[in-house]
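Annex B. Sample input.
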Amino acid sequence: MTAVYGPTRDLLKPAFLRELRRCKPDEGSKWLLLGDFNLIYRARDKNNRNLNQSRMRQFRAALNSCKLREIHLQNRKYTWSNERRRPTMCRLDRVFANESWDLAFEQHGLLALSTSHSDHCPLLLSSMSGPRAPRPFRFENFWTKLPGFTKEVHTVWKQPTTHTQLVRILYHKMAATARHLRS
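Annex B, continued. Sample output.
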């Protein structure tokens, strides 16, 4: 994984793109490249027509040379704003991956998070096949008609707890009862 902060000064951008090319790992290695590139490679990544076409071509060429593909940002078009009355907005923050990384981690998603502390929004790359949220407990009315239901609930409810606050005792007993009923 390579994290970058691209230069803001135009004079330094060609050297930055050369450095990206030098960072490319050997064939077959998994590579994730992410950060604030301070560059765009498509016109749609900016909300106005003040574009440096030459710089965009250079960025695209560097990405192609490194055989990188962008991981799709699912919930936002732009990641940066100059926060003025008539703002300029751009997609400066990105995550790229090579084919080896993409094949090894097929189920992934990229989301923009909200922030009030920066003119950039943080990005969250996560596994979409990772741990799921626990299933919610659903009480089934027919359980009350099963033989021994009341006895089972009573047995679990009587188990001791280490909690001293009433609300925590109640939560613990309800959670234990739910686990027992689910099984």
